[in-house]
Amino acid sequence: VGASAASSRRDLGAAMAGDPHCELRKGARNLVLSGGNPAARLMIVGGAPGRDEDIEGRPFVGRAGQLLDRMLAAIAMARTAPDAEASVYITNILKSRPPNNRDPLPAEVEAHIPILYKQIELVRPKLILAVGKSAGNGLLGRTSSLASLRGKFQDYYGLQLLVTYHPAALLRNPQWKRPTWEDVKLLRTRSDQPVGARVAPPDPHG
Ligand code: URA
Ligand code: URA
């Protein structure tokens, strides 16, 4: 991680710290901005940090995160991999933990998503994997079922977006492991293919 990634991280932190409207911050211990490799071609987006993430200030470090790491290892990817092709960058739509891990409210998504757009601009991933209903719907601005969101890549402002089940949901519902594995294999196949020109991420003020 070079100086530019470090200063981008500071910029993001400053942007969040300067937000006087963030009610969530009052109940949370830490901002959870990102993990993994900022040079990665794949960005993974979750819904919101949970308890373990709030304590450590890092995304996907609890049980769900450990399962996510195993799923990535199965397709030879890891957040710690040094090269762009094998590594991942991880973040959430919300950068702080909602009380009692409740689902993000639409107003919270609206308040936090410009930070995600900024991260997309800085990292310039080719592929985005959204895990869970909150992340998928939050990115796409929809209110769809996970079953209807998953299973295919969709265009997301010129990036390739795939939605799949949340690893925490898999821990409770093992019957979703099989479709998730299909999605993960699709991700591997797509990440092995060259991807065309990318366009700028959405303008949060536009
Ligand atoms: N679940 C998420 O969506 N994000 C995390 O960082 C941890 C659990
Ligand atoms: N419902 C959710 O909220 N998340 C999933 O991943 C699947 C179903």
Alpha-carbon Rg, integer:
16 Å
Count of β-strands: 6
- The topology string of helices and strands comes to HHEEHHEHEHHEEHH
N- to C-terminal separation? Answer: 31 Å
Q: What's the average pLDDT?
A: 89
Low-confidence stretches: none
Q: Which distinct ligands sit in these coordinates?
A: uracil
How would you write the strand order of the largest sheet? Answer: 1-3-2-4-6-5
Describe the model.
The protein is α/β, with parallel strands linked by helices. The chain is 43% helix and 13% strand. It has a 6-stranded mixed sheet with strand order 1-3-2-4-6-5, with helices on both faces. A hairpin with a 2-residue loop joins strand 5 and strand 6. The site of one uracil has 6 residues, from loops.
Summarize the structure.
With 206 residues, this protein is an alpha/beta fold.
Topology (elements, then pairings):
Layout: H1 3-17, H2 24-27, E1 35-36, E2 42-46, H3 51-56, H4 63-74, E3 88-92, H5 106-123, E4 127-131, H6 133-140, H7 146-149, E5 154-156, E6 159-164, H8 167-172, H9 177-191
Parallel strand pairs: 2-3, 2-4, 4-6
Antiparallel strand pairs: 1-3, 5-6
Bound molecules: uracil (URA) (2 copies).
Provide tags for this entry.
single chain; 206 residues; alpha/beta; six-stranded mixed sheet; 9 helices; 6 strands; binds uracil
